[in-house]
Amino acid sequence: MSLADSVSVAVKQQKTRAADVKPTTKTSARPALTRLERAERFWGWIMVLPLLIGLLVFYFIPFLQNIFYSFTDLDQFMNWSTFNVNNYLDLFSDDDFYAAIANTLFYVVVCVPVSLTLSLLLAMGLNQNIRGKALFRTLLFLPAVTMPAAVAMVWQWLFNKDFGLINYLLHFFGVSAIGWLSDPDIVRISVSVIIIWSSLALKIIILLAGLQSIPRSIYEAADIDGISTLRRFFCLTLPMMVPTLFFVSVMSFIEVLQIFDVVFLMFDRSMVESDTMTITYLFYKNAFYLQQKGYASAITVVLFIVTMLITLVQMAIGRRLKVA
Amino acid sequence: MTTYSQTRNATPARTDARSVPRKKINVQKWAVYLFMVLASLASVVPFIWMLITSLKTQAESIQIPLQMLPSHPGFAAYGRILHEIPFTGFYLNSILSTFFTVTLQMIIATMAAYSFARLHFRGRNVVFVLCISILMVPGQAFLIPQFLVVQKLGLLNTLTGLILPGIFSIYATFLLRQFFMAVPKEMEEAALMDGYNHFTIFWRIMLPLIRPGIVACIIINGLWSWNNLMWPLIVNTSSNKLTLPVGLASLSSRAGEEYPMLMAGALMAIIPMLMLFIIFQRYFIQGIASSGVKS
């Protein structure tokens, strides 16, 4: 979920912890360990062992295997014969790949800012003392627990050109039927709407927790000084929320990079290939539909590198903002 | 939680003294209200439309001009789904897979998290950083080799294959470690003096203390497992082994344009989580929030 953030936090904690611990381990590791220390070491390893074995078999080794496969022509029967960089060369001449990158960029540019703004406004709304707050909260949070497969199905129906609710409501305003899911110029906006609708709730929950942790005394002081609502927001709320907003935007980025369910379920293959291709869909198509597993591995390696680069940029920004 | 507008309204004398027109405050309050109502509507209308459509007949659902409410609401679509598709099987597979995934995840992750947070041994920090670094890699980068491992073990189309890679959760380990680190040191030192071993301390003393963290993890990972599409889609392909998300995908390619049936299926798939959410709302919100405010 929170790749960049959690890792940087963890690494930092490790650093400080390592510094704390060093003197004691140095003095105690050299001479024979005491009985208690040996017991601690024994239980320490025993208790991480199940996790370690699992990670080794299903994550560490697969990660290396995946990089290896990306240089081969692995097929569905796990056979490979050549070992070269052809997959990567093919990737850079694959129209689908460029389409996937372009679409992902579109979703990043549209979904991240819009969902961040909307979720902040809604979190602030829920943080007010308004009547029916509990009901608003329940209704707004429902999408967070709804399975993406079902989300895709209901929006497919809402967006239906002939019988959909949205076009029906629009016709009262004199708008003629829009091909939300068939018009190549519009379809990416429709997908963005669905992504925003389904991802808003999680962000509101986290931002609301952030808002509630701002000390009330600050607002009371501002109240006495008679600051305007707008200045209150830009000079108090926003600066206090920077760390939370940063975390949520990182989360949002990673979410958008991994869009698959909605696209997979809403469109038939020809539509995806021409207009709504995403990186994860491209991977799925090559790995499990076309059975070009070597090529699919190369896609994930590129995705990994891109994610790493974004993470580094985000960490640099985070350091600037002094939140990571 | 008390906010600006409320404090203002609570002390009208002071606001009046600064001659802020009361009208303006009211307008502001109504604007907030309107915004919240519209947003809540946008959030809930898809669910209502799902329900309404599922009670219609196929002919009613594609009637022009569109008819808002069904004239004879009925459960025919639900009956057809349960008869024509092994939907109860999807349910069972989803429930079993979520239950076993989360249970095993918690056993493995709590132990590892305790060890990483509380026990000192050489190499611990290196191992922990290595584990955490997995979080930086997009999940798809593991999928093909994971699939090959499961295939080699002959576990395609089995429950074991379905849950296997998911039970090792670094995310849960990381989150639980934060909770363990917040427990005061004295607790376990006293127990150590009494001669208990580390596992007993973990099991008897530490686990009960981090119950909120465990609840948070169960909710987040349970949701994730229940809703997950990609892995079940890849490993379980025979129709009686599908989970609900994959079942919905196959339903949508099979029922095509029969929206009452599709909506009935979608609604049945999300009802359990919606009910759990409405009943245990507080825990859900705390759980999700704790994943965000951990730093």
What would you say this structure looks like, in words?
The complex is a heterodimer of chains A (324) and B (295). With 324 residues, chain A is mainly α. Chain A folds into 2 domains: 1-31; 89-320, MetI-like (MetI-like fold, Orthogonal Bundle). Chain A has 14 helices and no strands. Chain A has helices at 3-29, 35-69, 86-91, 95-127, 133-141, 148-158, 165-171, 187-212, 216-225, 229-257, 261-266, 269-276, 279-289, 293-320. In chain A, helix 1 (3-29) packs across helix 14 (293-320) and helix 4 (95-127) packs across helix 12 (269-276). Chain A starts with a helix and ends with a helix. Mean pLDDT of chain A is 85; it is low at 1-7 and 14-29. With 295 residues, chain B is mainly alpha-helical. Chain B has 2 domains: 4-54, no CATH class; 80-292, Orthogonal Bundle (MetI-like fold). In chain B, 74% of the residues lie in helices and 0% in strands. Chain B has helices spanning 4-10, 12-17, 22-54, 58-61, 76-84, 87-118, 124-133, 140-152, 159-163, 170-181, 186-193, 198-209, 211-227, 230-235, 244-255, 259-279, 281-292. In chain B, helix 10 (170-181) runs antiparallel to helix 13. In chain B, 44% of the residues are buried.
Q: How would you briefly describe this protein structure?
A:
The complex is a heterodimer of chains A (324) and B (295). Chain A folds into two domains: 1-31; 89-320, MetI-like (MetI-like fold, Orthogonal Bundle), CATH 1.10.3720.
